[in-house]
Amino acid sequence: MAKQKDYDSGSIQVLEGLEPVRKRPGMYIGGTGADGLHHLLKEIADNCIDEAIAGHATFVDVKLLADGGVTVTDDGRGIPVDTHPKTGKSTLETVLTVLHAGGKFGGGGYKVSSGLHGVGSSVVNALSTRFIAEVVKAGQLYRIEFEKGVPTGELKKIGKTDRPQGTSITFYPDPTIFKESVDIEYEWVLDYLRHQAYLTKGIKASVADERTGEEYAFYFEGGIRSYVKHLNLGKEVIDEDVFYVDKPVEDSQVEIAMQYVDSFTESVKAFANNVFNPDGGTHLTGFRSALTRVINDYARKNGLIKDKEENLSGEDTREGLTAVILVKMPDPQFEGQTKNKLGNPEIRGYVEQVLSEHLAYYLEEHPAVARKIVGKALLAARARKAARAARENIIRKGVLEGSGLPGKLADCSSRTPSDSELYIVEGDSAGGSAKGGRDSRTQAILPLRGKVLNVERARLDRMLGNNEIVTLIKALGVGIEEQFSMDGLRYHRIIIMTDADVDGSHISTLLLTFFFRFMKPIIDGGYLYLAKPPLFELVKSGKQANTFIYDEAELEKVLDEKIAERKAEGNKINPKDERYKQAGFTEQKRYKGLGEMDAEQLFETTMNPAQRVLVQVRVNDAEKADAIFNKLMGTEVELRKNFIQTHAKFVKDLDV
């Protein structure tokens, strides 16, 4: 047996410069998949946005180069090029090769910025096969190049240029790091720049894709006011006016835009220094507190709430509210590496102060709008009380709580959520096949009768009056609304299994709407799936196994391969025969419903973990998802009509 090497000083590896980044890229960009790849562009573009926030840049331009590179340009002050006193190198080289070197640590470079650690540009440099930095200072162009974070030469003064100032960074992501792909998605860039243009009023943000010839530019003079209008596009607003305030407080800036729509959900987005905080934070807390207090004060002052009546709750005042809160400050304190939540305690007071003063004034100056807002909140309060009564009634009957499970649920024997999965099945016929073919140890079956309630158009009180919705809530074990808790989740795979036809797609959409609006943590946790049953069965003669096909593209591929095989074997092919016959099959069946399969077929094609096809439901862009659900399931018929007309040409094999 070989002698084990001693654990001594020689065992300790010291990584210098940018070596740690290449060794452990995930520590700096979160991963080396698509998200990490696009994070590179975000790091560079965020620096341009910081220049715009500071008032020194008017545009950011992104070019996706035909050779796989990316160029990001701004007209800001330009990264300094003079010699840095600590490193003895040019400041530009220092910023691009030394971790935690930047202008965002209180040295006067930036009063407000989204970056906190000074690692962005240097990390991108380290993870690029080639990195070119060009800086314009007082009409003079400077240039330096790198390979995998190492300079290939000194900083060069190229000469005069027409541009007075700015920075241009070109980088080529390293394919040995990003093994999945090094192609930046045009749509991702488009979404990123759109949001930055909304959050930085007056900046022009543009993208050009040399690979396809596509290009687009954004410019929103209204800033977050325009953002609120965008979020409410296609929704019925209670008034066209958007409340807006932008005011400095101490060393910070508070900017708020809000508008109410005729819906039952709220959409409030909180940002700090242009960074989205999905979990909110002190700015959101201050906003909610001020909103609830101001609306209640106005309602009481104007006799809309009587003396003995209870105040409107925060939930009541936010029903149907679309709002964007943007705060800017010198030293944002985020909870966690992902900046999901803002923690600065002073910001709560700043936001409360600004919103309280200006919203109270706005309501007094706009009494018609104020009465609509209070009226909507009063309706929400009545619905909340009705929902509470309905919930309590249901609880008393033991429908939502207690040990009993829905009678129609065929549960699995496993009580370990990570091993258990629930199939939500369309109708009793498919439910019967699913129950007969399942693995009863780990697979539970819940058949739903008909189409569940469209929750996009219903408050909780109406939802709790729908048997299918209540059955589903009970089966999942997580409760609903304020009683919702992921701790009770009984299955870690929840699989929607519907027919591969129009009705099945509609039922899937109704269920997806329910999960998105009322049980989004289930989606966020990766627990929701769509089953993909086969569309076709290619039948062989005799005892030979049949072939199940899941989509049109796969069908054509299989037929092409089988026909080619038969030709290669010397079989005579009649070109007048149907393609399935040319491929050696006796029949081609198209399935319209799960109930057409027997229990064994359904298990083998759609439920067997060894060979089934599941599609995990993810929400990569909650804003887009919200817009799609509003469009497809909301009250605006014209939106749905336009969507259908636009996408009808892409539909194949429509069942009528």
What report would you give on this structure?
This protein folds into three domains: 201 residues, 2-Layer Sandwich (Heat Shock Protein 90); 165 residues, Ribosomal Protein S5, domain 2, CATH 3.30.230; 152 residues, Rossmann fold, CATH 3.40.50.670. The C terminus is likely disordered. A hairpin with a 2-residue loop joins strand 12 and strand 13. The termini are far apart. 37% of the residues lie in helices and 19% in strands. Strands 1, 2, 3, 4, 5, 6, 7, 8 and 9 form a nine-stranded mixed beta sheet that branches. A five-stranded mixed beta sheet has the order 10-11-14-12-13, sandwiched between helices. A five-stranded mixed beta sheet has the order 18-17-19-20-24, sandwiched between helices. It has 656 residues and is of the alpha+beta class. The protein is flat and about 85 Å long. Helix 3 packs antiparallel against helix 5, helix 3 runs parallel beside helix 6 and helix 12 packs across helix 19.
What's the topology here?
Elements: H1 19-23, H2 26-29, H3 34-53, E1 59-64, E2 70-74, H4 91-97, H5 120-126, E3 128-137, E4 140-147, E5 150-151, E6 156-160, E7 166-173, H6 186-199, E8 204-209, E9 215-219, H7 224-231, E10 243-249, E11 252-260, E12 267-272, E13 275-276, H8 282-301, H9 314-318, E14 321-328, E15 334-335, E16 341-342, H10 345-365, H11 367-396, E17 421-426, H12 427-437, E18 443-448, H13 460-463, H14 467-476, E19 493-497, H15 502-518, H16 520-524, E20 528-531, E21 536-539, E22 547-549, H17 552-568, H18 579-582, E23 587-590, H19 599-607, E24 614-616, H20 622-633, H21 637-647
Parallel strand pairs: 1-8, 12-14, 17-18, 17-19, 19-20
Antiparallel strand pairs: 1-2, 2-7, 3-4, 3-7, 4-5, 4-6, 8-9, 10-11, 11-14, 12-13, 15-16, 20-24, 21-22, 21-23
Helix pairs in contact: 3-5, 3-6, 8-10, 8-11, 12-19
